């Protein structure tokens, strides 16, 4: 291969390499994603790229010269404010065949914190469609992403990797069930009316919770989510009163800072000193100030805590995950020669 031939690359960090605090710093909101895209477009040698940003990973997929790939870690650091020391060992690069294999595994939920979850496929499709609409992708990434979606569908069809509708929301509700037993008498507050908030509220409803309130910055969004979960709607302005009466709080907003501060939780606990408050932070950046957990009778769990709990249930899905990984290897081997030809066609 010629030294100047383009390479298929992945540069990213995930729950495998980065603790929650660093993933929080790396998270790409709309402004950061736009800034990173602008820099990538201006980087000599970068031909194609797509950005995948979820609670568990920030990844740049692309086609570029090897020299360009070497410079991209500094670009990610400049956009996110992470230092070289923070990114060392956290931001990792893959090339060629390994990128295809990784993308297939991600799409199928095999690389997720909760193995077998399905949300990642929708997030990947949204990321790809955004890149396609902005003309960031080209023939190589278009082929690889489209094939990854096909591989994910095949794995879902031919294995039971997703049996039981596994998701971070269901893990959160299972944890609440372990602590409270029957959830029927528990007062549940879901903060955030997006996709994860709705799924969390519905998961609580399916487990028998009858008193569910959904709070959102936009009341109409809270009303729509509450209607689907058989609950009540509220605005974020009502959080002080809602925290004083809730037993379980699950928060999953897209706010850039803490929605539930330590002071807000402390004020609520003054009205309920003898009653425990169970907090589940499903957001990245985090919604709940970790300092809130220092108060008596406050119990806080974040995404990494839930992932550790999900690991306990992985054994029963491991056989299906192994089948999925075998399919990934087979399909990667079939696709890679075509991709390699596209990257370096004969003269």
Account of the protein in words:
The strands form 2 sheets. The protein has a 6-stranded parallel sheet, sandwiched between helices. It has a 4-stranded antiparallel sheet with strand order 2-3-1-4, sandwiched between helices. The radius of gyration is 22 Å and the shape is globular. The chain has helices at residues 20-26, 30-42, 66-80, 84-87, 97-107, 119-133, 139-158, 168-180, 195-206, 219-229, 239-245, 262-269, 303-312, 315-343, and strands spanning 7-14, 46-53, 57-64, 92-95, 187-191, 211-216, 232-235, 248-251, 277-281, 298-301. It is an alpha/beta fold. The longest helix is centred in the last third of the chain and has 29 residues, at 315-343. Helices cover 50% and strands 16% of the residues. It folds into 2 domains: 7-163 and 319-343, Glutamyl-tRNA reductase, N-terminal domain (Beta Polymerase, domain 2, 2-Layer Sandwich); 168-309, NAD(P)-binding Rossmann-like Domain (Rossmann fold). The mean pLDDT is 92.
Low-confidence segments, ≥5 residues, pLDDT <50? none
- Which class best fits the helix and strand makeup? alpha/beta
Total helices: the number is 14
Distance between the terminal alpha carbons, to the nearest Å?
12 Å
CATH architecture of the largest domain: 2-Layer Sandwich
Main β-sheet description: 6 strands, parallel
Number of domains: 2
Q: What is the beta-strand fraction?
A: 15-25%
| CATH third-tier fold name of the largest domain | Beta Polymerase, domain 2
